[in-house]
Fold each of these.
Amino acid sequence: MSRGSDSRRRGHRASASGEDRHPAERAIRAVVTQPGQDASSREAVRARAHELGVRGWVRDSDDGTLAVHAEGPAAGVEALISFLRVPSAGAGTPEVTVEEVAIEGHEQFAVRGLSAGEFVVQEHVATAHHFDLRLQVGEVMRSWAVPKGPSLDPAVKRLAVQVEDHGLDHNAFEGRTERGGVLVWDRGYYEQGGRVPWPEALERGHAVFVLHGQKLHGGFALQRTRPGQKSQWLLLKRRDEEARPGSDVVAEQAESVLSGRTLEDVLGEHG
Ligand code: MN
């Protein structure tokens, strides 16, 4: 179970980056290859990073490796790299590659790729036509009315007016209402993103999250427009591999993800 010389096998020098504002700070990306690693590996890395005062994230990659971004005091980052190289019972010695990267300014060490809760987008006609984006935070759905609906085009900023929280039991509601109707336009789960803990990021007015829906995928941001204007936000798609410049997903995919109906179908039904 000895680490031996393994912890000195780093391919890069700690001082490789001359751009860091704080000379004692360091940031790395590591990829850990070890057969048999599971969710407990991610949690163990998060717990150790927390002990060491190291910030960043850990996530499972599709190829079965563990990816780690770690930044903070150089000694803490080095100790976390050593921890990644410790053999685990019955699984042998992990292979760890380490690359020096720029410090990104993380404020936490997060486990990425985990659901933070449900999300739903409901198309809604009442006095006006709009889309309601709802993100689960604890036992409620935080809600924003988006008049033009979400977009997958990163160049498009959509006004999003925060409205009252809804209950989770409303997420599957679709049908006629007294003054109009509701359609479940998209539904799925989301992950927290960005560098600030969730849901504190929402309180601070800049929240980054990744949607895993049937229509909406990838990173999005909700940005409060002015500190004093608590209810007024902008919703925008972040630039990533899920972005679709020039697209209009609301017009292209109008059907309910529950029933295949359009809002016109719902409104045309006799209640
Ligand atoms: Mn509404």
Amino acid sequence: MKRFLPLVCALALLTGCAGTAEPVVQTFFAMDTVMSITAYDSGPTDGLVAAQQEVNRLEGLWSRTRSGSDVSRLNDAAGQWVEVDADTAALLEKANAAAQESAMAFDPALSPVMDAWGFGSTESETTAVHRVPSQEELDALLPLTRDLPQVEEGRARLPLEGQALDLGAIAKGAAAAYVVDALTEHGVESAIIALGGNITALGTKPDGSPFRVYVRDPQGSEEDYLCLMALPAGMTCSTSGGYERWFESGGEIYHHIIDPSDGYPAQSGLLSVTVVAQDPALADAWSTALYVLGAEEAVARWESGMGSVAGMELILVTEEGTVYITEGLEEGLETLGEEAGYTYEILRR
Ligand code: ADP
Ligand code: MG
């Protein structure tokens, strides 16, 4: 498993600008993943410290494993109202909207099923027991999913006893917005923020050109890349792929992105989905949702701009080796996977 090397879109630290001060990099482990913030301003230390503190605060609210977190308390008291932080209420509202707009391809209440596969975040990856649950087991657990948390001012509630939330597919993205705020408050104007597979550009590189990020080859090693692309100021790119976490049983590969409609690892014909969007939480949630929904549905949503995220652009990698890239990402794009057998197609509206 590649748990500790999850910078799916690796950073292209191409400073290449004579006279620019060396960037300051802050790397830390939080929310079960490696995070790094690279700031190009001089004297960004206070901002970096504040940003990391903010991530730690949010992890204290949204972790499923920490007792006393808002998510733990909601899960422990499933069926009853629980007082929650305003930031938790806001995240739950956003998660619910993504769930509804994705026709429940993204389901924040999928935990009971995730746990049955051993992908639940109640156990650390090193001790998790991965197994294929029986159909009876899944049939018994699926009714505990899909009912979304109810949210009112200052409080929330999982409607059914036995339900459990897992915000793993949206929380890291959501945290990026807080990191941006913390850095901005401390005067940082140029930084690239990588929270697991979510990368956010705060401003541009010091020379005014956009930051550039690598998107990984979902079938390659960590150093094999599909493309290098420009990430405009203020945008986030989020990648979801079945290759990130998986296990093998009876000759079959089972990965960690579950199709909530049947409780099995999604088999939509995609190897990875990269979503570029303005809102980092939505980029994160939708990369997971579109991975479940598949290329046809993803492209239809991109074309219509309906029922998804405003300003969204996509990179879809199919099992056949076709890489579909929406036209908004064409400028500044460098393809890198031809030798590995990929073919590239730009999608136009
Ligand atoms: P990662 O967190 O591994 O970078 P994602 O953002 O795609 O990748 O989130 C995957 C995680 O989200 C899984 O490990 C699991 O906890 C949870 N998850 C899996 N399938 C779904 C789904 N359909 N809806 C919501 N959460 C999911
Ligand atoms: Mg996600």
